[in-house]
Amino acid sequence: MKPDKGTTLEHHLRRLTVGQRISIILALLLLPMAVLSVVSMSVLDGQEIDFQHSVQESIDTLLPLTTLEHYLERAQVDELEAQTNTSAPNFTVLTQNIDRSFSTIETTGSTPDMPEGLITAAQRAWRDARPAVQRLVEHIRPLHLGNDRLSDTLSRKDLQQAIHDVSRARRHLATIIKARYTHAVALRHSQLRWLVWSWVVTLSVATLFIGLFLSSILRPIKALESAARRLGAGETGVRIAVLGNDELTSVSRHFNAMSEYWEATRQALLTETSMDPLTGVLNRRGILAVLEQELAAHRRHGQPLSLFMMDLDRFKTINDTLGHSAGDRALLWVAEKMRESLRGSDHLGRYGGDEFIAVLPATTQEQAQAIAQRMRQSIHDTANRDDALPTISIGIASTPEMGWDMQTLIGGADAALYASKHRPDKTSSSD
Fold first, then answer.
1. Sequence spans of domains, the chain
2. Which CATH superfamily hosts domain 275-421?
3. Sheet of 355-361: strands edge to edge?
4. pLDDT (tens digit per residue) in 33-85
């Protein structure tokens, strides 16, 4: 069987062996998962590192300003807690750390989620706060918190101004850090969505290809199973499309060869069981089976059908006087003459001994009478010149006149035959 267009892809796939296709299926399933797993781990590790960096940046950036603001507020409220005798804070280091944080922010630059105006506002706030802090640095060297000169040197107004400017710088800087954090979170979400879609698309494509490869394996197996079931049910002409060059193709070829051999053997057995070995026409079982099938078909379509019941005249005399060989030659000759008179669509069978049946599909009673007359006349013309050849008598029964029951139809033809054999005028057939 030739493959149709729908099996072209399967034909190409079946050029590979089943083992090769299973290996490809495993590769399509495992390799994308392995690659995506490595990429996912790399992206997640990168996100964790970025998160740690973001947290550390927040600490390094905001802590100096927050610490400076805290110490200035303590100086204002508690006059640097003269009673604790603790060491004065190192304002110089804090200022340097803050300057370094702003340098880092300038290097990083702005992003869509963190406009340049935020950076500018924070820098301006720090520039406003820095002179007041610088004055603190100049007046407070390694000064102890309990030293009374701090109150003399700094006025409450200077402290308030320094606290205000530092607080404003801290708020702007916190806004920058928050914007960076928001941008980082959005980036992480985008990366995660990209990973999810990568998994979905990759697995979908892999599943599609796996389905195609599995189909190229399962389809021929299902075809084999269906063909074997049909063959087991007695259906003939069962064949499987031979595609590709794999193991299943070889099995399909062997199945087709087996099916052909089975059909030939079956036909030989049917022929042997349904054909008469002497005359070559159908035997009793074969002709009755054909009659039953034709009656069922003609009943469904409402078509007429006629039946001949034929008996050889003087056959017993030929057999008794000339021997059985002469009787066999007479049977062979009369069967051949009957076939010559019948049409290609008609069926002829040996009913038993010297009796024959002919089934004439789609034939009315009038048409059957004309055919029977020609047959009888043809046989009589030759047999009347040779005593070793028999003549025949014919009884006719037709549907729908005689009904559709097989036994009734045979009985009607047999009765007509009996009447024909006992008529004085033997040159006409009877119905």
1. 1-273, 275-421
2. Reverse transcriptase/Diguanylate cyclase domain (3.30.70.270)
3. 347-352, 355-361, 305-313, 391-399
4. 778 788 778 777 776 777 666 666 666 665 665 666 666 666 554 544 443 44
